[in-house]
Amino acid sequence: QEKINHFRNQHKINVYGTDIPDPVESFQQLCDEHVFSSKIIENISESGYKAPTPIQMQAVPVMLAGRDIMACAPTGSGKTAAFLLPILHQLKGPRKLGFRALVLAPTRELAQQTYRECLRLSEGLGFRVHIIEKAETARKKFGRKTSQKFDILITTPNRLVYLIQQEPPVISLKNIEWLVIDESDKLFEEGKLGFREQLGAIYKACDGPSVRRAMFSATFAHDVEEWCKLHLDNVVQVYIGARNS
Ligand code: ADP
Ligand code: ADP
Ligand code: MG
């Protein structure tokens, strides 16, 4: 335990919560201890990632343990892979259950970037990864009459809310296992109250038996923490660097 604490200090990993999983030091450790598929490890190294960043060291094992997480780490510190990798591992492979993972991003540009990173990290695993374009296209692609052969959805919240509020809903979120809210501080910013309502609607629609949630942001925001304490289950908080930086 002292070794773990020393390791966390070394990498400026601060954690709060109970029964927090140990951080990993290398990607190989994910392979050895968490039986990551060699394909994922290959995709990581194809991306040029040699060692996990501090947020990846700690957030990946937390999510692999199926724990709700609130994570804060500076911009450019690899938060995208920190949530995508455990999700790719846990979804195992493609299914016909409709979307099982949902990533919300505050802007379409960010959704696009995350989508590209997801394609890269999931190459060869067979997952169907999608972003939402037009509402009508979405109905044809994801509606109830389709085969439901899709796994991961990356989108801005507003268009998703529109689709789930159709009667019948164009997209079902009842099989969602992971709800990720990326740049959650932005989604909660002052003057963007719309986002909070949208989030509420989406959160409610993810009503499957085993939904876990992950909030990622670059800065600590009290509003996000409040929301997490209210809505998340036995949350693990992970901060890289000082909590208020
Ligand atoms: P954040 O979301 O924290 O701002 P990103 O996930 O966008 O950061 O990652 C920033 C950059 O770092 C991206 O170009 C990404 O490909 C790269 N990156 C992510 N993880 C690693 C890693 N383990 N090693 C090297 N580069 C990485
Ligand atoms: P976001 O902010 O999430 O990118 P948009 O503001 O583009 O979302 O709107 C969401 C999408 O949902 C739009 O592209 C549009 O196709 C559809 N949409 C939203 N509201 C309506 C509406 N009232 N009637 C028809 N389509 C709508
Ligand atoms: Mg990011």
From TrEMBL:
Instruction: Please list the GO terms describing molecular function.
Output: ATP binding; hydrolase activity; RNA binding; RNA helicase activity
Where is it located?
Nucleus, Nucleolus
Record bears the keyword Nucleus? yes
Protein name in UniProt: Probable ATP-dependent RNA helicase DDX52
Give the record's keywords alphabetically. ATP-binding, Helicase, Hydrolase, Nucleotide-binding, Nucleus, RNA-binding
Organism of derivation:
Owenia fusiformis (Polychaete worm)
A single Gene Ontology biological process assigned to it is: maturation of SSU-rRNA
- Output a single Gene Ontology CC term carried by this record: nucleolus
Please tell me whether the keyword GTP-binding is annotated for this protein. no
Q: What does the similarity note say?
A: Belongs to the DEAD box helicase family. DDX52/ROK1 subfamily.
**Where is the major localization of this protein?**
nucleus
Q: Which domain of life is it from?
A: Eukaryota
